[in-house]
Write a structure and sequence with these properties.
258 residues; mainly alpha; two-stranded parallel sheet; 9 helices; 45% helix
């Protein structure tokens, strides 16, 4: 009777604990100052992704350039390749000059193709920019995460899930939450063409909770997020923020890393 108006937490406790553990790992290994001072909440608008190109390849390259900028890795040498025409042979070690991330990184245009990080794209996603941006961010998070000095929390089998949280830490949480479904490509001559969603490992609810942690740590208002978050997740995002108000000790531990 007395629990009649009690609400269930938006996420089960082991998942919340895991998300906080992964956030701690990201902050220890990839920079608290960069996170607090230079990491933006990237939003799916023309303000964040301006410009256009006349070809699919050109658009793929433009979007990757912008994603790298927001991820603070503009200096990483990369090349963009249509996945349908690519035989992947990754370099033994990515050649990065200067700092791993941030303004101290040095752009070296002389790096040959064979030493550049090959980023593939699906041409079918070119009209689904949120999906393409999230896919790029996840690929880059995979390579960034592999350079951590500390082993990630939990089982290595969860590596794709860990790198999705890392992409949220890099600022792409709204785009990840909005596109968190399995890939579904279909086409029809009488409709608008291909429809695609990003392949995701975490659920949209896990990602939205991770996004809420990001916003609380950086002092980003709920209204700024909800305007760009898909409508079905807005009430859940509000619940996540409410739940985090009762987790001040955990949040302070993350803030203390800065």
């Amino acid at each position: 009777m007395f629990g009649l108006f009690n609400r269930e937490p938006p996420l089960d406790e082991p998942s919340v604990e895991w998300l906080f553990d992964v956030y701690g790992w990201t902050l220890r290994n990839f920079g608290t100052d960069l996170f607090m001072d230079d990491t933006l909440l990237v939003l799916p608008t023309n303000r964040y992704f301006p410009g256009s190109e006349s070809s699919v390849q050109g658009m793929a390259e433009l979007i990757l350039k912008q994603v790298k900028h927001y991820a603070n890795i503009s200096h990483w040498p990369t090349r963009v390749v249509d996945q349908n025409s690519c035989s992947l042979e990754q370099p033994a070690q990515l050649a990065i000059t200067g700092a791993l991330r941030g303004p101290e990184g040095v752009v070296d245009e002389s790096v040959p193709d064979e030493q550049r990080l090959t980023i593939t794209y699906d041409p079918a996603l070119i009209n689904s920019p949120e999906v393409m941006i999230a896919s790029y961010a996840h690929t880059l998070a995979h390579y960034l995460g592999s350079m951590a000095e500390e082993e990630p929390p939990g089982d290595r089998d969860n590596w794709p899930h860990i790198t999705e949280v890392l992409a949220v830490y890099m600022g792409f949480g709204v785009l990840f939450a909005n596109s968190a479904f399995n890939v579904k490509i279909s086409s029809c001559g009488s409709c608008q063409g291909p429809v695609a969603d990003r392949e995701s490992f975490l659920s949209q609810y896990d990602i939205t909770y991770a996004l809420a942690i990001f916003c609380v740590l950086k002092g980003i208002s709920a209204g700024e997020v909800k305007r760009h978050l898909k409508s079905s997740l807005r009430p859940y995002f509000k619940l996540c923020l409410k739940d985090l108000k009762g987790r001040k000790d955990k949040l302070e531990k993350l803030r203390a890393l800065a």
